[in-house]
Automatic annotation (TrEMBL):
PANTHER family linked: CARBON MONOXIDE DEHYDROGENASE (PTHR30109:SF4), HYDROXYLAMINE REDUCTASE (PTHR30109)
Protein name: Carbon monoxide dehydrogenase
Any one Pfam family match given in the protein's UniProt record, by short name: Prismane
EC number: 1.2.7.4
Record carries keyword Lipoprotein: no
Single GO biological process annotation from the record: generation of precursor metabolites and energy
InterPro entries for the chain: CO_DH_a-bundle, CODH, HCP/CODH, Prismane-like_a/b-sand, Prismane-like_sf
EC category name: oxidoreductase
Binding-site positions, [4Fe-4S] cluster 2: 47, 50, 55, 70
Length: 631
């Protein structure tokens, strides 16, 4: 099958042809079967919030039905649908975080969940106002901090603890605009309530509440997910890895980890080193056990262990189509329900592990926090024993893979920045060198480029084109999620990528010995970007909205990305979306998103599907910010 949306991806076409030969169905077959997608859904003007509907209203104010049966007009319907996407995204990130906190609550000296970063544990405990953080026994403190973190989901009073990191000006804006998020569960529940039939109909109020709910993701759930994962599993450090389907090794037992939550993945990483299981693999004729990552689990694992990245969202099917994956094991989020059926076209066993994401047609091995290693060992044993079932005639692994450097947590990035200063005379261990580079104009600014793949967009093209345009113009890029994996595959996470940069960024990369595009982790790790930007704003004594920094999601598809865009805008950064969310049916709501919100937060959503044009807009935005700062 030839598909113009794949031209940028040099190995996809061959694998899709292979799938057809193997009688396996892919997302492209399903996309074709769907024919034209629904225009009402696309515009966000179909309401099925109550059972008097569904009510599809006209996108035009001049003809057709103007209101649903209850009287909701297109502005209300679009706003409510948008709000519910923010709820979905916030729930996903935050419930992930809750699982991490639960694991920390179960941590112990001799159990499978341990505290690896005692310093960070003590720092965050102090930041959150716990007592005796210097002296308390490690696990007693970890349990106390975990309990406090669980309260962030349901505390009856107060706002999210991490908001205090932000510049004072930003905190005042959040208070003034009533978008400072309270308990995470409360924000989601209250917005679901607001958008129930017969509740809020004022689009402006619904958008404000959507921002507040999304804020409970960015500065709540996601930030907790990142920081607590670091405490338990380690702060990511600079390290080498490889990326693309070529990391699947036909001579080894291949286990593809897919999903998001590092709890399961970490246990699999541990269990895959069990000498008995490695021996068992050898007895089956394999050279060893090869764990590879897909999507955000891949990001978590490459950031902390250098585990190789098999691919991003859109490649989850491709990996199985190689015919060399013994087990695809998943936890939550971004997992195609199509995978069990696809796996049956090959020898692959598809294993789900989370009761929250029980997938029809799976083999189910529940991940139990109280005995996590047994699930991991069973997964690996299943993979090892499945090696002999491979059909050699169906094995075809593309050779393509790219070297990559990963691991830019905030801490590691600050460490790298220390290389550009004179450690004898200058302050080290801060973001000051980054601020200096931006203020001096060596770097014009920075862009956080994040998000998914979407078959509405040529695979990886928008990510890579935007990144290349920006680095050419001396804008340093920080990336997470599937955007980071796109960058990795395209070679943008290598030191050599400096050759694609403008003079200033090239020089900065040489002095700091970093690539121009920095992998900051999974999608919850966008909180690392928020944190870094916050540190720079605080160091310079300005608000986040004043910095020459933008957010972008060129190929996003998920509700999580909608929540992300909303908390990034609320944090003061203009956010460039390459795919239209379902809001085009309401001009008024679009105007609120692109203009109105600017008056509240100092930033707005920008819709631009062409990455070249988006880059031009971003450069103009960055230069405008610089002028206003007088730099
Ligand atoms: O949280 S970028 S496709 S994998 S949603 Fe999913 Fe999108 Fe990838 Fe991670 Ni994020
Ligand atoms: Fe129709 Fe109103 Fe019910 Fe929505 S809430 S389905 S617009 S009647």
């Amino acid at each position: 099958m030839s598909n113009e949306l794949l031209e940028f991806d040099v190995i996809a076409e061959a694998l899709i042809e292979k799938a057809q030969k193997d009688g396996a169905e892919t997302m492209w077959d399903r996309k074709a079967a769907l024919k034209t997608q629904c225009g009402f859904g696309e515009g966000g003007i179909c309401c099925r919030i109550c059972v008097m509907g569904p009510c599809r209203v006209s996108p035009s104010p001049d003809k057709g039905a103007q209101r649903g049966i209850c009287g909701a007009d297109r502005d209300t319907i679009v706003a409510r649908n948008f709000a519910r996407m923010c709820c979905g995204g916030t729930s996903a990130h935050s419930d992930h975080a809750r699982d991490i906190v639960h694991a920390m609550y179960h941590s112990s000296e001799d159990g499978p969940f341990k505290i690896r970063e005692e310093g960070k544990l003590r720092r965050i405990a102090a930041e959150w106002g716990l007592e005796d953080t210097d002296t308390k026994e490690t696990y007693a403190l970890a349990h106390e901090l975990a309990e406090k973190a669980l309260m962030e989901f349901g505390k009856p009073f107060g706002t999210q603890n991490f908001l205090k990191r932000a510049p004072k000006t930003r905190q005042e804006i959040w208070e003034r605009e009533n978008i400072a998020p309270r308990a995470i569960d409360q924000e989601v529940v209250t917005l679901m309530h607001s958008t129930h039939m017969g509740c809020a109909s004022d689009p402006e109020s619904i958008l404000r509440r959507s921002l507040r709910t999304s804020m409970s993701d960015g500065w709540g759930g996601s930030m907790i997910g990142t920081e607590f994962s670091d405490i338990m599993y380690g702060i990511p450090k600079e390290r080498a890895s490889e990326s693309n389907l070529g990391v699947i090794d036909p001579e080894q037992v291949n286990i593809m980890l897919h999903g998001h939550d590092p709890n399961l993945a970490e246990m699999i990483a541990v269990a895959s080193k069990n000498p008995e299981l490695i021996e068992l693999a050898k007895e089956q004729g394999a050279k060893g056990i090869n764990v590879v990552g897909m999507c955000c689990t891949g990001n978590e694992m490459t950031m902390r262990h250098g585990i190789k990245i098999a691919g991003n969202f859109y490649q989850q099917e491709m990996a199985i189509i190689t015919g060399a994956v013994e087990v695809a094991v998943v936890d939550v989020q971004c997992i195609f329900p199509a995978l069990p059926k696809l796996a049956k076209s090959y020898h692959t066993r598809f294993i789900s592990t989370s009761p929250k994401a029980k997938i029809a047609g799976d083999m189910y091995i529940e991940f139990n926090e109280e005995d996590p290693l047994s699930c991991a060992e069973e997964v690996i044993k299943t993979a090892v024993m499945n090696f002999k079932n491979r059909d050699a005639s169906k094995v075809d692994v593309p050779e393509l893979k790219a070297e990559t450097i990963v691991g830019y947590s905030v801490e590691t990035t600050i460490g790298a920045l220390d290389r550009v200063v004179n450690s004898q005379t200058d302050v080290t261990g801060t973001v000051k060198p980054l601020g200096d580079l931006v203020w001096a104009g060596v770097l014009r600014g920075a862009a956080g480029i994040v998000g998914c793949n979407n078959p509405k967009v040529e695979h990886d093209y928008a990510h890579i084109t935007l990144m290349k345009e920006l680095i050419k113009n001396d804008v340093i890029c920080v990336v997470t999620g599937c955007a980071a994996q796109a960058a990795a595959k395209a070679g943008l996470l290598k030191l050599e990528a400096k050759e694609l940069c403008g003079r200033g960024l090239k020089e900065a990369c040489e002095r700091a010995n970093i690539p121009p595009v920095l992998h900051m982790g999974s999608c919850v790790d966008i909180s690392r970007i928020l944190h870094l930007v916050t540190l720079v704003a605080n160091e310079r004594g300005v608000d986040i909205a004043e910095l020459p920094v933008v957010g972008a999601a060129p190929e996003y598809m998920s509700e999580k990305a909608v929540a992300i865009a909303s908390y990034v805008v609320s944090s003061g950064l203009n956010t460039y979306l390459g795919v239209m969310p379902y809001v085009s049916g309401s001009e008024n709501f679009m105007k609120l998103m692109t203009e109105g919100v600017k008056e509240w937060t100092g930033a707005a959503y920008v819709f631009e599907s062409d990455p070249i044009k988006a880059a031009e807009l971003i450069m103009a935005d960055i230069e405008d910010k610089r002028t206003k700062l007088g730099i």
